[in-house]
Specification:
The complex is a heterodimer.
Chain A: E1 12-23, E2 26-38, E3 42-46, H1 53-60, E4 68-71, E5 74-77, E6 80-81, H2 87-93, E7 98-101, H3 115-126, H4 131-144, H5 150-154, H6 163-175, E8 181-185, H7 193-210, E9 213-218, H8 221-227, E10 230-235, E11 238-244, H9 254-261, H10 280-284
Parallel strand pairs in A: 3-9, 3-10, 7-8, 8-9
Antiparallel strand pairs in A: 1-2, 1-4, 1-5, 5-6, 10-11
Helix pairs in contact in A: 3-4, 3-6, 4-6
Chain B: E1 12-21, E2 28-38, E3 43-48, H1 54-62, E4 69-74, E5 77-78, H2 85-90, E6 91-94, H3 108-118, H4 124-134, H5 151-163, E7 169-173, H6 181-198, E8 201-206, H7 209-215, E9 218-223, E10 226-232, H8 233-237, H9 244-253, H10 258-263
Parallel strand pairs in B: 3-8, 3-9, 6-7, 7-8
Antiparallel strand pairs in B: 1-2, 1-4, 4-5, 9-10
Helix pairs in contact in B: 3-5, 4-5, 5-6
The chains are: A alpha/beta, B alpha/beta.
Chain lengths: 292, 268
């Protein structure tokens, strides 16, 4: 179960991570003792709503507020113990070394600041760059995320851009400090498929060319299978299975198999889609670890 | 295939539909010269990306948006800007967000009873029991509130509410895109079964080509307010789309491919 030390290529290693919420009606366990590591790779975390995949991402950045509580035997990022880090240290890590793209740009962008200034701010907070350089760099970044007219978009407010554009702006903002690890929580599910492909290509290049680590949280199994290197399948707060992404079709766990079967496919018509027959035992059985 | 019957009259006709929002320089031409016909018993798909106009077509048909021009017909009769009760007895709509489409402080019983009371139907009790069974929920759900239901159960209630009036047509606007894939499969199966059992006609709007291929007989691909291409699902599967836009959608629906992503074009 317990690896002796971090894999030399791991950026982040967590062991026995729990996320609990203390509520009036008892303790809700959102994440129940998972272990995984992320290297300079594309690691997909898949599961349905309530499986704990988003909470896992948020726990890494200590973004869970009371009554939520994070515990782990180990949470190591490049030699830094994230659980022992205080708020000041976390602020130096968040954004600069580990960045996170959230699902909905509507709630993540500042409504009273132009998008250009927000991207600039992200850059200047983490570098000593001057105004002109920050502007140049922001425009470059907007161009990199396939915003067609960066100069025009730079001066727009968040309510003036579409959802898809807002998401690309978010991604630009998160990538501009050049993080070592990017946690992307459903980063493309609000995007049209064609834009989605382009945004994924950007992330793909960042991993292969700059050696960034990517934790890609998604409910879309086909997308994860075709995009990621490794996949972790979560159910009820545990990892039920992990495998190479290109081997997802060969997955063994009945939950994974059930999810795959329930997806309609253009090329494979069926009279009735197989539905998932959930077993209580899936909740109870011990999870597996997903170390490098 | 209902569409192949010669001489059969279409149930729904959309002819040269145009929808413009706003005025002057601010005007947005959301739907441009869209025409298609749907046969009785058919499932017709409208597929496209956000802003393609697919939902706007559905909203014009349903009477939710009176600002349109062109011709809309149901069973051969022209539809006006305002719809009467008789129209809604025949045509009902299911929305994307099942939580937003149910009143948070009304029980399932009240949500289901309302359309029946508006239309002055009798045997409301019996009807409610029946539609709950039809959508696979059963009597235990009758006095629950929306927050006590899962997303899939809420969407079942929304479908049940439509069925209360025993309509002929259901307009489905992204009915499963807010649901987990395993729940999506359940709702798609439910919709397929209800269509067969009740002889319903569907127009299904979705951005998901696989969902359209699973459910529909024929489909129209929309982009920037226009129908780019109309085809049967068999033609789609046989990879016969002639338009580059449709080919691109089909490629994208098969998952990520670095080379394909590089070749993606913008079509607006």
């Amino acid at each position: 179960m317990t690896p002796p030390a971090s894999h030399p290529e791991a950026l982040l290693t967590m062991e026995d991570l729990w996320v609990r919420f203390h509520t009036r009606t008892g303790i809700v366990e959102a994440v129940r003792g998972i272990g995984l590591s992320v290297g300079r790779e594309k690691l997909g975390i898949v599961g349905e709503s309530g499986s704990g995949k988003t909470m896992t991402g948020r726990a890494i950045l200590q973004l869970i507020r009371p009554p939520g509580e994070i515990t782990a035997r180990r949470m190591d990022f490049q030699g830094i113990d994230l659980l022992a880090a205080d708020e000041r240290q976390m602020r130096q890590i968040r954004g600069e070394r580990i960045s996170m793209v959230m699902q909905d740009p509507k709630f993540s962008l500042n409504p009273v600041m132009t998008v250009g200034r927000q991207i600039e701010e992200a850059y200047r907070t983490h570098t000593k760059a001057g105004g002109r350089e920050a502007r140049e760099k922001s425009l470059e970044m907007l161009d990199a995320v396939k915003i067609r007219d960066p100069r025009r978009v730079y001066d727009l407010y968040p309510h003036e851009v579409s959802g898809g554009m807002g998401q690309r702006i978010m991604i630009a903002m998160m990538l501009i400090p050049d993080p070592e690890l990017l946690i992307a929580d459903e980063p493309t599910s609000a995007l049209d498929v064609t834009v989605q492909m382009q945004v994924l290509a950007i992330l793909d290049d960042l991993v292969s060319q700059r050696g960034m680590g990517l934790m890609f949280i998604s409910h879309d199994l086909n997308l994860v299978a075709s995009f990621c290197d490794r996949v972790v399948i979560m159910y009820a707060g545990r990892i039920v299975e992990t495998c190479r992404a290109d081997r997802l079709e060969e997955a063994q766990h009945p939950y994974t198999r059930g999810l795959l079967a329930s997806l309609p496919e253009v090329d494979r018509p069926v009279a009735t889609l197989p539905t998932l027959n959930r077993q209580d035992s899936w909740r109870e059985e011990p999870g597996v670890d997903a170390f490098l | 295939m209902p569409s192949s019957e010669p001489g059969a009259a279409p149930l729904i006709e959309v002819e040269s539909l145009d929808v413009v929002f706003g005025y002057g320089a601010q005007a947005v031409h959301a739907v441009r010269d869209v025409s298609f016909q749907v046969m009785a018993g058919e499932t017709y798909g409208l597929v496209g990306e956000s802003g393609s106009g697919k939902s706007t077509v559905l909203r014009a048909l349903s009477g939710l948006n009176p600002d349109w021009s062109g011709n809309l017909r149901l069973g051969g009769r022209a539809l006006g800007r305002e719809r009467d009760r008789a129209f809604y007895k025949r045509v009902q709509m299911v929305f994307q967000d099942p939580y937003g489409s149910l009143h948070p402080r009304h029980t399932v019983d009240r949500a289901l009873g309302e359309p029946a009371r508006i239309h002055g139907l009798d045997r409301v009790d019996r009807r409610i029991e029946q539609v709950l069974l039809d959508v696979g929920l059963g009597p235990a759900f009758r006095f629950r509130y929306p927050h006590q239901l899962s997303g899939g159960q809420r969407q079942r209630v929304a479908v049940a509410r439509c069925l209360m009036l025993e309509p002929e047509v259901l307009l489905l606007d992204e009915p499963t895109s807010a649901l987990d894939v395993s729940v999506q499969a359940e709702i798609l199966n439910l919709l397929g079964r209800l269509r067969r059992e009740h002889g319903l006609t569907y127009i299904l709007v979705s951005h998901n080509l696989a969902v359209i291929a699973q459910m529909c007989d024929r489909l129209a691909v929309m982009n920037a307010g226009r129908v780019v291409e109309e085809m049967s699902v068999a033609q789609l599967r046989a990879a016969e789309p002639t338009q580059p836009y449709t080919r691109q959608l089909l490629t994208a629906s098969r998952g990520y491919d670095r080379a394909a992503a590089e070749a993606m074009e913008s079509f607006d």
